[in-house]
TrEMBL record:
The keyword Transcription applies. The keyword Transcription regulation applies. PANTHER family: HTH-TYPE TRANSCRIPTIONAL REGULATOR, HTH-TYPE TRANSCRIPTIONAL REGULATOR CYSL. Keywords: DNA-binding, Transcription, Transcription regulation. Belongs to the LysR transcriptional regulatory family. It comes from Sphaerimonospora thailandensis. InterPro entries: LysR_HTH_N, LysR_subst-bd, WH-like_DNA-bd_sf, WH_DNA-bd_sf. This is Transcriptional regulator. Pfam families: HTH_1, LysR_substrate.
Length: 302
């Protein structure tokens, strides 16, 4: 047998009738007409299967069964009140905090500016930021560990929503003493890049994913060195270990100062989208949505 839960508003109305001794007074306090109140209580009696009120020209009073129901209703309404207060507290906590994870390139070179903008817009918001590679960011979103993530991958796993917030470009870089540095802007062939051992980021990073994707179909040499941070890769390249492919964001200072040299590659598109990701197909709300909006606005203004 299917049991229907009693309507909480009807229970509250019944409680008012018991306190006021009048259906009309209870209806007025409840903000409805007496006829509507009567219909609600008739429905409640049918749903519960017991008589609740004796109605007369002098007023309304509870039946013995109604008195028992009232005692239970008080506890039920109090519990419902506790539930609503608890949910409101959770909502307030969500509205003043946001859990974020970002891939290393985004976290190092873009996230600081985005967080400054978020602090200006919502000064009361606390941000918890985790810095991991793009693969781990997506895992954390899927498992509900964070509210929103930022990744360098061109696609996102099933079950996640992705939103393009910025554009990036990978570049081939070498030390000034490397033979490729003497090409004086002459483009490198893709086959030469693919066949050369490189210093690369670890599997799961957005940079490594993009590189593997654009070189798919070519005979690719084994890495010269595999490292888990942009900083470590740059040091290895500067010391002459091997060339590398990194975000232009990560090497801007080194290129400007001449510590690294960019080598163009003929016919190779190394542009990539940077995306915000979150669970499901719903729209973000609160500070997480504002952070994504500010990130996208920053892209439009840059």
């Amino acid at each position: 047998m299917t049991v229907r839960w009693p309507d909480l508003d009807s229970l509250e109305l019944l409680l008012l009738v018991a306190e006021q001794g009048s259906l009309g007074k209870a209806a007025k306090l409840h903000g409805i007409t007496q006829a509507s109140a009567s219909r609600r209580l008739d429905t409640l009696e049918r749903e519960l299967g017991v008589p609740l009120l004796h109605r007369s020209t002098t007023g309304s009073r509870l039946t013995p069964q109604g008195q028992v129901v009232i005692d239970w209703a008080r506890a039920t309404l109090a519990a419902a009140g506790d539930l609503l207060e608890g949910v409101q507290a959770l909502r307030r906590r969500r509205d003043v905090s946001v859990r974020v994870a970002a891939s290393m390139t985004i976290a190092e070179y873009l996230m600081p500016g985005w967080l400054v903008a978020l602090r200006r817009a919502l000064p009361e918001v606390e941000v918890g930021l985790r810095v991991v590679n793009s693969n781990v960011v997506c895992q954390m979103v899927q498992e509900g560990e964070i509210d929103v993530g930022f990744v360098e991958s061109p696609s996102v796993p099933q079950g996640l929503t992705g939103y393009h917030v910025a554009q990036d470009r990978l570049v081939v870089v070498v030390a000034p003493r490397h033979p490729w540095a003497a090409r004086r802007g002459a483009p490198l062939e893709v086959a030469d890049l693919a066949s050369t051992p490189l210093v690369v980021r670890e599997p799961g990073s957005g940079t490594r994913y993009t590189l593997d994707r654009v070189l798919a179909g070519w005979e690719v040499a084994a890495p010269a060195l595999e490292l888990s941070s942009n900083a470590a890769v740059k040091v290895a390249v500067e010391t002459g270990v091997a060339p590398a492919v990194l975000s232009v964001l990560a090497v801007a200072a080194e290129l400007r100062e001449g510590r690294l040299i960019e080598v163009p590659v003929r016919g190779l598109d190394l542009r990539r989208a940077l995306s915000a990701v979150w669970r499901g197909r719903t729209r973000l709300a609160g500070p997480a949505a504002e952070l994504v909006r500010l990130a996208a606005t920053s892209r439009a203004e840059s």
